[in-house]
Amino acid sequence: MRAALLLVWMPALLAAHDANGRSSAPLESRRLVNPLQPSEAALYSASATFSKLCAECHGADGKSRTKLASTLPSRPTDLTDYLMQAMKDGEIYWIITNGAEKGMPAYGKQLTDAQRWEMVFWVRELRVRELYAERIQLGTYEWQLPPGFPHPKVPADNLMTAEKVELGRLLFYDKRLSANQKQSCGTCHRQDKALTDGRARGLGSTGELHPRGPMSLINVAYNSVLTWANPNVTKLERQALVPMFGEHPVELGMAGKEDELVVRLKAEPRYARLFPVAFPSEREPVTIGNTTKAIAAFERTLLSGDSPYDEYRRGDDADAISESAKRGEKLFYSERLECFHCHGGFNFTGSLDYLGKGSPEVEFHNTGLYNLKTELTYPEDAPGLFEFTRQKADAGKFKAPTLRNIALTAPYMHDGSVNTLEEAIEHYRAGGRTIKTGPLAGVGFENPNKSEFVKSFELTPAEKTDLLEFLKSLTDPYVAVDQRWADPWSPKAVTPPVRPRHLLLGEVVEVYPEAGSVTLKHGAVTGFLKATGAEETREFIVRDKKELDSLQPGARISAGVRRRGADYVIENVRSQSRR
Protein backbone atom coordinates (compact mmCIF):
# COMPACT_ATOMS: atom_id res chain seq x y z
CA MET A 1 0.00 0.00 0.00
CA ARG A 2 1.14 3.56 -0.58
CA ALA A 3 2.66 5.25 2.37
CA ALA A 4 3.86 8.37 4.09
CA LEU A 5 5.69 10.89 2.00
CA LEU A 6 9.09 12.29 2.73
CA LEU A 7 9.83 15.77 3.94
CA VAL A 8 6.30 16.28 5.23
CA TRP A 9 5.65 17.56 8.72
CA MET A 10 1.92 18.16 8.34
CA PRO A 11 -0.73 15.69 9.56
CA ALA A 12 -0.69 12.72 7.20
CA LEU A 13 -4.36 12.83 6.24
CA LEU A 14 -4.13 16.38 4.92
CA ALA A 15 -1.66 15.81 2.11
CA ALA A 16 0.96 13.11 2.33
CA HIS A 17 -1.28 10.06 2.11
CA ASP A 18 -4.66 8.82 3.13
CA ALA A 19 -5.46 6.79 6.24
CA ASN A 20 -4.58 3.60 4.41
CA GLY A 21 -1.16 4.60 3.17
CA ARG A 22 -1.92 5.57 -0.41
CA SER A 23 0.30 8.31 -1.79
CA SER A 24 -1.18 11.68 -2.71
CA ALA A 25 1.20 11.96 -5.65
CA PRO A 26 -0.70 11.43 -8.91
CA LEU A 27 -0.77 7.94 -10.39
CA GLU A 28 1.20 9.02 -13.44
CA SER A 29 4.16 9.95 -11.19
CA ARG A 30 4.80 6.24 -10.65
CA ARG A 31 5.91 5.96 -14.25
CA LEU A 32 8.68 8.55 -13.85
CA VAL A 33 12.08 6.89 -14.10
CA ASN A 34 15.20 8.23 -12.43
CA PRO A 35 17.56 9.18 -15.28
CA LEU A 36 20.59 9.11 -12.98
CA GLN A 37 22.68 6.12 -11.94
CA PRO A 38 23.41 5.59 -8.22
CA SER A 39 26.95 6.59 -7.30
CA GLU A 40 29.00 7.68 -4.32
CA ALA A 41 29.17 11.15 -5.80
CA ALA A 42 25.37 11.36 -6.13
CA LEU A 43 24.87 10.18 -2.54
CA TYR A 44 27.44 12.66 -1.24
CA SER A 45 25.76 15.51 -3.09
CA ALA A 46 22.30 14.47 -1.90
CA SER A 47 23.41 14.13 1.72
CA ALA A 48 24.74 17.70 1.62
CA THR A 49 21.43 18.96 0.20
CA PHE A 50 19.51 17.01 2.81
CA SER A 51 21.63 18.42 5.64
CA LYS A 52 21.00 21.96 4.41
CA LEU A 53 17.26 21.76 3.72
CA CYS A 54 15.78 18.85 5.62
CA ALA A 55 17.87 17.70 8.60
CA GLU A 56 16.61 20.40 10.97
CA CYS A 57 13.19 18.72 10.98
CA HIS A 58 14.00 15.15 9.94
CA GLY A 59 17.39 14.78 11.59
CA ALA A 60 20.58 13.58 9.95
CA ASP A 61 19.38 9.99 10.32
CA GLY A 62 15.93 10.73 8.85
CA LYS A 63 14.05 9.57 11.95
CA SER A 64 12.55 13.00 12.72
CA ARG A 65 13.60 13.03 16.37
CA THR A 66 14.86 16.59 16.44
CA LYS A 67 14.15 19.46 18.81
CA LEU A 68 12.31 21.38 16.09
CA ALA A 69 10.26 18.33 15.13
CA SER A 70 8.94 18.07 18.68
CA THR A 71 7.54 21.61 18.48
CA LEU A 72 5.63 21.13 15.22
CA PRO A 73 1.89 20.38 15.12
CA SER A 74 2.64 16.91 13.78
CA ARG A 75 5.97 15.11 13.85
CA PRO A 76 7.69 14.98 10.46
CA THR A 77 7.63 11.73 8.54
CA ASP A 78 10.18 9.12 9.60
CA LEU A 79 12.11 8.59 6.37
CA THR A 80 13.53 5.28 7.61
CA ASP A 81 10.07 3.79 8.04
CA TYR A 82 9.13 0.68 6.05
CA LEU A 83 6.36 2.65 4.33
CA MET A 84 8.94 4.51 2.27
CA GLN A 85 9.71 1.24 0.47
CA ALA A 86 6.22 1.22 -1.00
CA MET A 87 6.80 4.43 -2.92
CA LYS A 88 8.05 4.58 -6.47
CA ASP A 89 11.02 6.79 -7.28
CA GLY A 90 8.73 8.99 -9.34
CA GLU A 91 6.39 9.61 -6.41
CA ILE A 92 9.25 10.70 -4.16
CA TYR A 93 10.58 12.95 -6.91
CA TRP A 94 7.12 14.42 -7.48
CA ILE A 95 6.69 15.34 -3.80
CA ILE A 96 10.16 16.89 -3.62
CA THR A 97 9.34 18.89 -6.71
CA ASN A 98 5.77 19.95 -5.89
CA GLY A 99 5.65 19.83 -2.11
CA ALA A 100 2.57 18.90 -0.13
CA GLU A 101 -0.55 20.93 0.46
CA LYS A 102 -0.31 23.03 3.66
CA GLY A 103 2.91 21.24 4.53
CA MET A 104 6.39 21.17 3.06
CA PRO A 105 7.38 23.68 0.38
CA ALA A 106 7.98 22.74 -3.23
CA TYR A 107 11.64 22.44 -4.22
CA GLY A 108 11.06 22.43 -7.97
CA LYS A 109 12.64 25.87 -8.35
CA GLN A 110 15.17 25.76 -5.52
CA LEU A 111 16.78 22.49 -6.64
CA THR A 112 17.82 21.43 -10.11
CA ASP A 113 16.24 18.38 -11.70
CA ALA A 114 19.42 16.39 -11.04
CA GLN A 115 19.50 17.44 -7.38
CA ARG A 116 15.92 16.28 -6.88
CA TRP A 117 16.65 12.89 -8.41
CA GLU A 118 19.77 12.63 -6.25
CA MET A 119 17.56 13.23 -3.21
CA VAL A 120 15.56 10.17 -4.20
CA PHE A 121 18.77 8.14 -3.86
CA TRP A 122 19.36 9.57 -0.39
CA VAL A 123 15.84 8.81 0.84
CA ARG A 124 16.34 5.23 -0.34
CA GLU A 125 19.71 5.09 1.42
CA LEU A 126 18.16 6.12 4.75
CA ARG A 127 15.76 3.18 4.59
CA VAL A 128 18.51 0.72 3.57
CA ARG A 129 20.57 1.70 6.62
CA GLU A 130 17.56 1.10 8.84
CA LEU A 131 17.02 -2.33 7.29
CA TYR A 132 20.49 -3.41 8.40
CA ALA A 133 19.71 -2.27 11.95
CA GLU A 134 16.40 -4.15 11.93
CA ARG A 135 18.03 -7.42 10.96
CA ILE A 136 19.83 -7.53 14.31
CA GLN A 137 16.44 -7.74 16.05
CA LEU A 138 15.11 -10.53 13.83
CA GLY A 139 17.67 -13.31 13.49
CA THR A 140 19.46 -14.78 10.49
CA TYR A 141 16.37 -15.85 8.53
CA GLU A 142 16.15 -14.41 5.00
CA TRP A 143 12.70 -12.84 4.82
CA GLN A 144 10.80 -12.76 1.54
CA LEU A 145 8.65 -9.76 2.38
CA PRO A 146 6.02 -8.58 -0.08
CA PRO A 147 7.10 -5.23 -1.55
CA GLY A 148 6.33 -2.38 0.82
CA PHE A 149 5.66 -4.62 3.84
CA PRO A 150 7.45 -4.08 7.18
CA HIS A 151 9.38 -6.69 9.09
CA PRO A 152 7.20 -8.42 11.70
CA LYS A 153 8.18 -8.20 15.33
CA VAL A 154 10.15 -11.20 16.59
CA PRO A 155 10.58 -12.04 20.31
CA ALA A 156 14.15 -11.72 21.56
CA ASP A 157 14.01 -15.29 22.90
CA ASN A 158 12.86 -16.76 19.58
CA LEU A 159 14.88 -15.13 16.81
CA MET A 160 14.20 -16.41 13.31
CA THR A 161 16.41 -19.03 11.62
CA ALA A 162 15.85 -21.17 8.54
CA GLU A 163 16.32 -24.31 10.65
CA LYS A 164 13.64 -23.24 13.11
CA VAL A 165 11.21 -22.47 10.28
CA GLU A 166 11.83 -25.87 8.67
CA LEU A 167 11.17 -27.61 11.99
CA GLY A 168 8.06 -25.50 12.59
CA ARG A 169 6.60 -26.45 9.23
CA LEU A 170 6.93 -30.15 10.04
CA LEU A 171 5.35 -29.65 13.46
CA PHE A 172 2.53 -27.54 12.05
CA TYR A 173 1.40 -30.45 9.87
CA ASP A 174 2.28 -33.27 12.30
CA LYS A 175 -0.72 -35.27 13.52
CA ARG A 176 1.30 -36.50 16.50
CA LEU A 177 0.32 -33.21 18.12
CA SER A 178 -3.28 -34.41 18.60
CA ALA A 179 -4.59 -36.97 21.07
CA ASN A 180 -6.10 -39.16 18.36
CA GLN A 181 -3.12 -38.56 16.03
CA LYS A 182 -5.57 -37.70 13.26
CA GLN A 183 -5.38 -33.91 13.37
CA SER A 184 -2.71 -31.23 13.16
CA CYS A 185 -2.60 -27.45 13.06
CA GLY A 186 -2.91 -27.81 9.30
CA THR A 187 -6.22 -29.65 9.63
CA CYS A 188 -8.01 -26.46 10.66
CA HIS A 189 -5.69 -24.18 8.69
CA ARG A 190 -5.65 -25.53 5.15
CA GLN A 191 -3.39 -23.91 2.60
CA ASP A 192 -5.95 -24.13 -0.21
CA LYS A 193 -8.33 -22.04 1.89
CA ALA A 194 -5.79 -19.38 2.91
CA LEU A 195 -5.09 -21.16 6.21
CA THR A 196 -8.74 -21.52 7.24
CA ASP A 197 -10.76 -24.75 6.94
CA GLY A 198 -13.95 -23.85 5.10
CA ARG A 199 -16.10 -24.72 8.10
CA ALA A 200 -18.46 -22.34 9.84
CA ARG A 201 -17.18 -23.48 13.23
CA GLY A 202 -14.14 -25.48 14.25
CA LEU A 203 -14.30 -29.19 15.01
CA GLY A 204 -12.00 -30.60 17.70
CA SER A 205 -10.32 -34.01 17.87
CA THR A 206 -13.03 -35.28 20.23
CA GLY A 207 -15.82 -34.17 17.90
CA GLU A 208 -16.65 -31.05 19.92
CA LEU A 209 -18.10 -28.26 17.77
CA HIS A 210 -16.52 -24.93 18.60
CA PRO A 211 -18.42 -21.64 18.94
CA ARG A 212 -16.05 -19.90 16.52
CA GLY A 213 -14.37 -20.71 13.22
CA PRO A 214 -10.61 -20.93 12.59
CA MET A 215 -9.13 -17.58 11.54
CA SER A 216 -6.77 -17.27 8.61
CA LEU A 217 -3.09 -17.44 9.55
CA ILE A 218 -2.00 -15.47 6.50
CA ASN A 219 -0.02 -12.42 7.72
CA VAL A 220 -0.62 -13.54 11.30
CA ALA A 221 2.85 -12.17 12.08
CA TYR A 222 1.33 -8.67 11.91
CA ASN A 223 -1.58 -9.39 14.25
CA SER A 224 -1.54 -7.47 17.52
CA VAL A 225 -4.06 -9.94 18.99
CA LEU A 226 -4.33 -13.53 17.83
CA THR A 227 -7.88 -14.73 18.49
CA TRP A 228 -11.37 -13.52 17.72
CA ALA A 229 -11.91 -11.84 21.07
CA ASN A 230 -9.19 -12.58 23.65
CA PRO A 231 -7.10 -9.41 24.10
CA ASN A 232 -4.55 -11.26 26.24
CA VAL A 233 -3.17 -13.61 23.57
CA THR A 234 -0.65 -11.50 21.72
CA LYS A 235 2.29 -13.86 21.06
CA LEU A 236 2.28 -16.77 18.63
CA GLU A 237 4.39 -18.86 20.98
CA ARG A 238 1.68 -18.67 23.63
CA GLN A 239 -1.18 -19.02 21.18
CA ALA A 240 0.19 -22.34 19.90
CA LEU A 241 -0.39 -23.81 23.36
CA VAL A 242 -4.13 -23.16 23.15
CA PRO A 243 -5.09 -25.66 20.42
CA MET A 244 -2.76 -28.31 21.84
CA PHE A 245 -3.71 -28.14 25.50
CA GLY A 246 -6.88 -26.05 25.72
CA GLU A 247 -10.01 -27.70 27.16
CA HIS A 248 -12.69 -25.08 26.52
CA PRO A 249 -13.16 -26.01 23.75
CA VAL A 250 -11.06 -29.12 23.08
CA GLU A 251 -9.06 -28.81 19.88
CA LEU A 252 -6.05 -31.15 19.59
CA GLY A 253 -6.84 -32.62 23.00
CA MET A 254 -3.34 -32.98 24.48
CA ALA A 255 -4.12 -31.59 27.95
CA GLY A 256 -2.40 -33.82 30.52
CA LYS A 257 -0.43 -35.61 27.80
CA GLU A 258 2.58 -33.32 27.66
CA ASP A 259 5.11 -36.04 28.47
CA GLU A 260 3.51 -38.37 25.94
CA LEU A 261 3.85 -35.69 23.26
CA VAL A 262 7.56 -35.26 23.95
CA VAL A 263 8.06 -39.03 23.70
CA ARG A 264 6.28 -39.08 20.33
CA LEU A 265 8.44 -36.27 18.99
CA LYS A 266 11.70 -37.83 20.16
CA ALA A 267 10.80 -41.03 18.33
CA GLU A 268 10.66 -39.29 14.93
CA PRO A 269 14.07 -39.43 13.11
CA ARG A 270 13.58 -36.05 11.43
CA TYR A 271 13.10 -34.37 14.79
CA ALA A 272 16.17 -36.09 16.22
CA ARG A 273 18.12 -34.13 13.62
CA LEU A 274 16.17 -30.87 13.44
CA PHE A 275 15.50 -29.97 17.09
CA PRO A 276 19.24 -29.86 18.01
CA VAL A 277 20.00 -27.79 14.89
CA ALA A 278 17.16 -25.34 15.56
CA PHE A 279 18.04 -25.01 19.27
CA PRO A 280 21.79 -25.69 19.36
CA SER A 281 22.47 -24.25 22.81
CA GLU A 282 20.10 -26.57 24.68
CA ARG A 283 21.08 -29.93 26.13
CA GLU A 284 17.50 -31.28 25.81
CA PRO A 285 16.07 -29.42 22.80
CA VAL A 286 12.89 -31.51 22.36
CA THR A 287 10.51 -29.65 24.66
CA ILE A 288 6.99 -28.27 24.54
CA GLY A 289 8.40 -24.73 24.69
CA ASN A 290 10.67 -25.28 21.72
CA THR A 291 7.82 -26.95 19.83
CA THR A 292 5.69 -23.82 20.10
CA LYS A 293 8.66 -21.60 19.27
CA ALA A 294 9.29 -23.50 16.05
CA ILE A 295 5.61 -23.46 15.06
CA ALA A 296 5.49 -19.72 15.73
CA ALA A 297 8.60 -19.18 13.58
CA PHE A 298 6.96 -21.00 10.67
CA GLU A 299 3.72 -19.08 11.09
CA ARG A 300 5.61 -15.78 10.86
CA THR A 301 6.68 -16.73 7.33
CA LEU A 302 3.07 -17.00 6.08
CA LEU A 303 3.18 -13.62 4.37
CA SER A 304 0.94 -12.62 1.48
CA GLY A 305 0.97 -9.35 -0.42
CA ASP A 306 0.99 -10.27 -4.09
CA SER A 307 -2.67 -9.97 -5.06
CA PRO A 308 -3.83 -8.31 -8.29
CA TYR A 309 -4.77 -5.28 -6.19
CA ASP A 310 -1.21 -5.10 -4.84
CA GLU A 311 0.12 -5.13 -8.40
CA TYR A 312 -2.24 -2.31 -9.30
CA ARG A 313 -1.67 -0.21 -6.18
CA ARG A 314 2.13 -0.59 -6.38
CA GLY A 315 1.97 0.71 -9.93
CA ASP A 316 3.36 -2.53 -11.37
CA ASP A 317 0.43 -3.02 -13.72
CA ALA A 318 -2.31 -0.45 -14.27
CA ASP A 319 -4.57 -3.19 -15.68
CA ALA A 320 -3.99 -5.78 -12.95
CA ILE A 321 -7.56 -5.23 -11.75
CA SER A 322 -10.69 -4.48 -13.75
CA GLU A 323 -12.34 -1.09 -14.13
CA SER A 324 -15.16 -2.50 -12.00
CA ALA A 325 -12.72 -3.31 -9.20
CA LYS A 326 -11.24 0.19 -9.43
CA ARG A 327 -14.71 1.63 -8.90
CA GLY A 328 -15.15 -0.82 -6.02
CA GLU A 329 -11.95 0.48 -4.43
CA LYS A 330 -13.42 3.97 -4.31
CA LEU A 331 -16.57 2.62 -2.67
CA PHE A 332 -14.53 0.64 -0.13
CA TYR A 333 -12.60 3.75 0.93
CA SER A 334 -15.62 6.05 0.91
CA GLU A 335 -17.23 7.56 4.00
CA ARG A 336 -20.55 6.34 2.64
CA LEU A 337 -19.66 2.65 3.11
CA GLU A 338 -17.05 3.08 5.93
CA CYS A 339 -15.38 -0.30 5.14
CA PHE A 340 -11.82 0.97 5.53
CA HIS A 341 -12.32 2.12 9.12
CA CYS A 342 -12.25 -1.48 10.36
CA HIS A 343 -10.36 -3.06 7.46
CA GLY A 344 -7.66 -0.50 6.73
CA GLY A 345 -3.91 -0.40 6.24
CA PHE A 346 -1.71 -2.76 4.26
CA ASN A 347 -3.24 -5.81 5.96
CA PHE A 348 -6.89 -4.65 5.76
CA THR A 349 -7.57 -4.95 9.48
CA GLY A 350 -7.73 -2.63 12.47
CA SER A 351 -5.47 -4.81 14.65
CA LEU A 352 -1.87 -4.37 13.58
CA ASP A 353 1.69 -4.48 14.89
CA TYR A 354 5.13 -4.67 13.29
CA LEU A 355 8.78 -3.88 13.92
CA GLY A 356 9.26 -0.18 14.59
CA LYS A 357 5.61 0.56 15.30
CA GLY A 358 5.27 2.71 18.39
CA SER A 359 2.32 0.85 19.90
CA PRO A 360 0.06 -1.91 18.60
CA GLU A 361 -3.35 -1.14 17.15
CA VAL A 362 -6.03 -3.29 18.80
CA GLU A 363 -9.69 -3.06 17.81
CA PHE A 364 -12.81 -5.11 18.48
CA HIS A 365 -16.19 -4.35 16.91
CA ASN A 366 -19.81 -5.32 17.32
CA THR A 367 -21.19 -5.54 13.77
CA GLY A 368 -24.85 -6.09 14.60
CA LEU A 369 -24.70 -9.77 13.70
CA TYR A 370 -27.14 -10.60 16.53
CA ASN A 371 -29.48 -8.79 18.89
CA LEU A 372 -31.02 -11.44 21.11
CA LYS A 373 -33.62 -10.69 23.74
CA THR A 374 -31.10 -11.44 26.45
CA GLU A 375 -28.96 -9.28 28.70
CA LEU A 376 -25.86 -9.68 26.50
CA THR A 377 -27.71 -9.69 23.14
CA TYR A 378 -25.24 -12.28 21.77
CA PRO A 379 -25.17 -16.10 22.11
CA GLU A 380 -23.81 -17.23 25.47
CA ASP A 381 -21.18 -19.52 23.94
CA ALA A 382 -19.64 -16.65 21.94
CA PRO A 383 -20.22 -13.31 23.71
CA GLY A 384 -17.09 -11.74 22.22
CA LEU A 385 -14.81 -9.44 24.19
CA PHE A 386 -17.22 -9.53 27.15
CA GLU A 387 -15.97 -13.02 28.00
CA PHE A 388 -12.66 -11.48 29.09
CA THR A 389 -13.56 -7.96 30.24
CA ARG A 390 -16.98 -8.68 31.80
CA GLN A 391 -18.08 -5.26 30.57
CA LYS A 392 -21.58 -5.27 29.03
CA ALA A 393 -20.50 -2.71 26.46
CA ASP A 394 -18.07 -5.30 25.08
CA ALA A 395 -20.72 -7.93 24.36
CA GLY A 396 -20.62 -8.99 20.73
CA LYS A 397 -17.30 -7.33 19.97
CA PHE A 398 -14.87 -9.35 17.85
CA LYS A 399 -11.69 -8.61 15.95
CA ALA A 400 -12.05 -7.54 12.32
CA PRO A 401 -9.95 -10.14 10.45
CA THR A 402 -7.85 -9.32 7.42
CA LEU A 403 -9.68 -9.12 4.10
CA ARG A 404 -6.66 -10.44 2.25
CA ASN A 405 -7.51 -13.66 0.36
CA ILE A 406 -11.15 -13.13 1.31
CA ALA A 407 -12.36 -15.09 -1.73
CA LEU A 408 -10.79 -18.24 -0.20
CA THR A 409 -11.98 -17.92 3.39
CA ALA A 410 -15.77 -18.40 3.29
CA PRO A 411 -17.92 -18.69 5.32
CA TYR A 412 -17.60 -15.35 7.08
CA MET A 413 -17.98 -13.77 10.55
CA HIS A 414 -16.67 -15.28 13.78
CA ASP A 415 -19.18 -18.15 13.66
CA GLY A 416 -19.37 -18.64 9.90
CA SER A 417 -23.01 -17.61 9.87
CA VAL A 418 -22.65 -15.58 6.65
CA ASN A 419 -22.04 -17.88 3.71
CA THR A 420 -20.98 -15.63 0.84
CA LEU A 421 -19.39 -12.26 0.12
CA GLU A 422 -22.69 -11.14 -1.38
CA GLU A 423 -24.41 -11.89 1.93
CA ALA A 424 -21.65 -10.09 3.84
CA ILE A 425 -22.13 -6.96 1.75
CA GLU A 426 -25.89 -7.15 2.31
CA HIS A 427 -25.31 -7.45 6.06
CA TYR A 428 -23.37 -4.19 6.14
CA ARG A 429 -25.69 -2.48 3.65
CA ALA A 430 -28.54 -3.11 6.08
CA GLY A 431 -26.43 -1.98 9.04
CA GLY A 432 -26.88 -5.30 10.82
CA ARG A 433 -28.59 -8.64 10.34
CA THR A 434 -32.27 -9.29 10.98
CA ILE A 435 -33.20 -12.85 12.02
CA LYS A 436 -36.99 -13.13 12.01
CA THR A 437 -37.63 -16.42 13.81
CA GLY A 438 -36.04 -18.96 16.11
CA PRO A 439 -33.84 -18.69 19.21
CA LEU A 440 -31.50 -16.19 17.51
CA ALA A 441 -34.28 -13.86 16.36
CA GLY A 442 -33.58 -10.14 16.59
CA VAL A 443 -32.78 -6.96 14.68
CA GLY A 444 -29.00 -6.51 14.61
CA PHE A 445 -29.32 -2.92 13.42
CA GLU A 446 -30.73 -2.05 16.85
CA ASN A 447 -27.95 -3.72 18.90
CA PRO A 448 -26.96 -1.14 21.56
CA ASN A 449 -23.25 -2.04 21.30
CA LYS A 450 -23.04 -1.90 17.54
CA SER A 451 -20.06 -0.05 16.03
CA GLU A 452 -20.68 3.46 14.77
CA PHE A 453 -19.10 2.42 11.48
CA VAL A 454 -21.76 -0.23 10.82
CA LYS A 455 -24.57 1.82 9.42
CA SER A 456 -27.04 1.27 6.62
CA PHE A 457 -26.31 2.66 3.17
CA GLU A 458 -27.77 2.53 -0.31
CA LEU A 459 -26.01 0.42 -2.93
CA THR A 460 -27.12 -0.10 -6.52
CA PRO A 461 -26.71 -3.56 -8.12
CA ALA A 462 -23.87 -2.18 -10.25
CA GLU A 463 -22.10 -0.77 -7.19
CA LYS A 464 -22.47 -4.09 -5.38
CA THR A 465 -20.81 -5.83 -8.32
CA ASP A 466 -17.98 -3.28 -8.25
CA LEU A 467 -17.41 -3.80 -4.52
CA LEU A 468 -17.37 -7.57 -5.00
CA GLU A 469 -14.80 -7.26 -7.76
CA PHE A 470 -12.57 -5.16 -5.53
CA LEU A 471 -12.81 -7.64 -2.65
CA LYS A 472 -11.97 -10.54 -4.96
CA SER A 473 -8.92 -8.64 -6.22
CA LEU A 474 -7.42 -8.88 -2.70
CA THR A 475 -6.77 -12.62 -3.12
CA ASP A 476 -3.17 -13.65 -3.78
CA PRO A 477 -3.25 -16.56 -6.29
CA TYR A 478 -0.01 -17.99 -4.92
CA VAL A 479 -1.26 -18.51 -1.37
CA ALA A 480 -2.87 -21.86 -2.19
CA VAL A 481 0.14 -23.25 -4.09
CA ASP A 482 3.25 -21.83 -2.41
CA GLN A 483 5.42 -24.88 -1.73
CA ARG A 484 7.16 -23.19 1.21
CA TRP A 485 3.91 -23.57 3.17
CA ALA A 486 2.81 -26.98 1.89
CA ASP A 487 2.40 -30.12 4.02
CA PRO A 488 5.86 -31.79 4.05
CA TRP A 489 4.41 -35.12 5.27
CA SER A 490 2.08 -35.46 2.26
CA PRO A 491 3.64 -33.52 -0.63
CA LYS A 492 1.32 -32.90 -3.56
CA ALA A 493 2.09 -31.67 -7.04
CA VAL A 494 0.34 -28.36 -7.63
CA THR A 495 0.08 -26.27 -10.76
CA PRO A 496 0.96 -22.61 -10.20
CA PRO A 497 -1.61 -20.13 -11.43
CA VAL A 498 -1.18 -18.80 -14.94
CA ARG A 499 -1.02 -15.09 -14.26
CA PRO A 500 1.44 -13.04 -16.34
CA ARG A 501 0.05 -11.52 -19.51
CA HIS A 502 3.49 -10.80 -20.94
CA LEU A 503 5.78 -13.43 -22.46
CA LEU A 504 9.56 -13.04 -22.33
CA LEU A 505 12.01 -14.94 -24.54
CA GLY A 506 15.62 -14.99 -23.45
CA GLU A 507 18.92 -16.77 -22.90
CA VAL A 508 20.27 -17.64 -19.46
CA VAL A 509 23.50 -15.79 -18.69
CA GLU A 510 23.97 -16.68 -15.00
CA VAL A 511 22.02 -18.49 -12.27
CA TYR A 512 22.10 -17.38 -8.62
CA PRO A 513 20.50 -20.20 -6.55
CA GLU A 514 20.99 -18.54 -3.16
CA ALA A 515 19.36 -15.32 -4.33
CA GLY A 516 16.63 -17.17 -6.22
CA SER A 517 17.33 -15.16 -9.36
CA VAL A 518 18.74 -15.46 -12.86
CA THR A 519 20.32 -13.07 -15.34
CA LEU A 520 18.81 -13.22 -18.81
CA LYS A 521 19.71 -11.73 -22.15
CA HIS A 522 16.38 -10.85 -23.77
CA GLY A 523 14.66 -8.72 -26.34
CA ALA A 524 11.88 -6.22 -25.78
CA VAL A 525 8.54 -7.40 -24.40
CA THR A 526 5.85 -5.56 -26.34
CA GLY A 527 3.87 -3.17 -24.19
CA PHE A 528 5.83 -4.02 -21.05
CA LEU A 529 9.63 -4.11 -21.15
CA LYS A 530 11.97 -2.14 -23.39
CA ALA A 531 15.39 -3.29 -24.50
CA THR A 532 18.27 -1.01 -25.40
CA GLY A 533 19.44 -2.13 -28.80
CA ALA A 534 18.57 -5.61 -29.98
CA GLU A 535 18.91 -7.22 -26.54
CA GLU A 536 19.11 -6.29 -22.85
CA THR A 537 20.72 -8.14 -19.92
CA ARG A 538 18.71 -7.97 -16.72
CA GLU A 539 18.31 -9.89 -13.48
CA PHE A 540 14.95 -11.56 -12.75
CA ILE A 541 13.56 -13.18 -9.61
CA VAL A 542 12.33 -16.73 -10.30
CA ARG A 543 8.93 -17.13 -8.60
CA ASP A 544 9.21 -20.92 -8.19
CA LYS A 545 12.69 -21.63 -6.85
CA LYS A 546 12.48 -25.26 -8.05
CA GLU A 547 12.64 -23.98 -11.62
CA LEU A 548 16.19 -22.75 -10.95
CA ASP A 549 17.43 -26.35 -10.89
CA SER A 550 16.74 -26.79 -14.60
CA LEU A 551 18.35 -23.52 -15.71
CA GLN A 552 21.89 -23.48 -17.07
CA PRO A 553 23.90 -20.71 -18.76
CA GLY A 554 23.23 -20.72 -22.48
CA ALA A 555 19.75 -22.23 -22.19
CA ARG A 556 16.97 -20.58 -24.17
CA ILE A 557 13.74 -20.13 -22.23
CA SER A 558 10.31 -18.57 -22.37
CA ALA A 559 8.55 -17.33 -19.24
CA GLY A 560 5.77 -15.11 -18.05
CA VAL A 561 7.15 -11.82 -16.73
CA ARG A 562 5.65 -9.14 -14.51
CA ARG A 563 6.66 -6.37 -12.15
CA ARG A 564 6.71 -6.80 -8.39
CA GLY A 565 7.71 -3.57 -6.74
CA ALA A 566 11.18 -2.66 -7.99
CA ASP A 567 11.85 -6.19 -9.28
CA TYR A 568 10.95 -8.21 -12.34
CA VAL A 569 9.60 -11.70 -11.71
CA ILE A 570 9.47 -14.64 -14.13
CA GLU A 571 7.30 -17.72 -13.72
CA ASN A 572 6.03 -20.70 -15.68
CA VAL A 573 9.51 -21.12 -17.18
CA ARG A 574 9.73 -23.33 -20.27
CA SER A 575 12.77 -24.52 -22.26
CA GLN A 576 12.98 -23.45 -25.89
CA SER A 577 14.81 -25.51 -28.49
CA ARG A 578 17.46 -23.72 -30.53
CA ARG A 579 16.78 -23.31 -34.23
Structural key phrases:
579 residues; alpha+beta; Cytochrome Bc1 Complex, Chain D, domain 2; 4 domains; 5-stranded mixed beta barrel; two-stranded antiparallel sheet
Question: What do these coordinates show?
Answer:
With about 575 residues, the protein is of the alpha+beta class. The protein folds into 4 domains: about 10-135, Cytochrome c-like domain (Cytochrome Bc1 Complex, Chain D, domain 2); about 160-300, Cytochrome c-like domain (Cytochrome Bc1 Complex, Chain D, domain 2, Orthogonal Bundle); about 320-470, Cytochrome Bc1 Complex, Chain D, domain 2 (Orthogonal Bundle), CATH 1.10.760; about 500-575, Beta Barrel (OB fold (Dihydrolipoamide Acetyltransferase, E2P)). Helices cover about 25% and strands about 10% of the residues. It is built from 18 helices and 7 strands. The chain has helices at about 40-55, 55-60, 65-70, 90-100, 115-135, 160-170, 185-190, 235-240, 240-245, 260-265, 270-280, 290-300, 310-315, 325-330, 340, 385-390, 420-430, 460-470, and strands at about 435, 440-445, 500-510, 515-520, 535-540, 555-565, 565-575. Strands 3-4-5-7-6 form a 5-stranded mixed barrel. Strands 1-2 form a two-stranded antiparallel ribbon. β3 and β4 (about 515-520) form a beta hairpin. α1 (about 40-55) crosses α5 (about 115-135) and α14 crosses α18. It is globular. The relative contact order is 0.09. Residues about 1-20 have low confidence and may be disordered.
